[in-house]
Amino acid sequence: MSKELIKKFVDTKVSENGMVETGIEGVQLFKITESIRCAPAIYEPSLTAIVSGSKEAVWNGDKHFYDNSKYICCTMSMPIEAGTPKASSENPLMGVYISINNQLMTELVLEMESAKDVIKMPKRAQHSQGLLTANWDNGLCNELYRLLLLVENPTDLAILSKSRLRELYYAILKGESGYAFKRTFGVGNEIARSIEYLSSNLSDAITIEDMADYIGMSRAVFHRKFKQATNMSPIQFVKSMRLNNAAMKISEGMNVNVAAMEVGYVSSSQFSREFKRMYGASPKQWIQTKRQFENVLQ
Fold first, then answer.
1. How, if at all, do strands 70-74 and 46-52 pair?
2. Angle, CA 171 vertex, CA 170 and CA 175 arms, to 5°
3. Cα(131)–Cα(57) distance, rounded to whole angstroms?
4. How far is residue 57 from each of residues 40, 42, 81, measured CA to CA in Å?
5. What predicted TM-score, i.e. pTM, was given to this entire model?
6. 182 and 109 Cβ atoms separated by less than 8 Å
7. Domains in the chain, start-ordered, CATH in brackets?
8. Residue 51: is it exposed, middle or buried by C-beta count within 10 angstroms (0-12/13-18/19+)?
9. Which end of the chain has fewer CB atoms at under 10 Å, N or C?
10. pLDDT digits (tens, 9 = 90+) for 207-234
């Protein structure tokens, strides 16, 4: 029932194509009414609750479609390709995007860890893959709807938003995706910290050894734990992160060579080779095709 109420709420508040701020930290409503082909993106820690339509994401070569049957979680910064190939004015993609406050989530996970004898943690005996889907449950639906209702009253919004956001996080941690967030934000979150270190120093020539040293692991142990957490080798991940960031900069109008340097490439020819290997076209060919596609939609 709450999911349908959330859908009506989003539809009422978002009249045009795009994102709308709610006034709640990290919470935005969105409606996309046009088909968008998959393009490079960097997903930050977040939860996306789709209430209408579907979205496509390409992660490590595999295509995934998400709709209102499950919500999407990203527990750490991830280089992916995402789009809305089926969106239209008749069948818009609508939902709620929640950017995770790292400090709040970490504090709550550690509190739950210390109270694990009295709080039943979700049983999910699989490794977090960084990007995953989980089934809606009543707890998530109810807390998300209660949070959104604050938008209707400025006084309630100012006084209660932090506490209700915390309650929503708590519902997430008790739900099906709780195990993944617990692994990322709880004790032993070294891999997430290594990715944050990479993201903060993307323009530097960060090596796998640098990332392993940063969290105090040997290269061999780091490689094994990193692949468990992300389903990619560290080398694959670093390359994807750099290339996705570069592609995003190029699509915004940045010169190809400048974009390559800003994500840590010294050789423009090496950048072009690796870009073509990942996206099937040179940087210039890729941006030309992207713009042609966008012109067709206009």
1. antiparallel
2. 120
3. 10
4. 10, 11, 6
5. 0.81
6. yes
7. 2-183 (2.60.120.10), 190-297 (1.10.10.60)
8. buried
9. C
10. 899 999 999 999 999 999 888 888 889 9
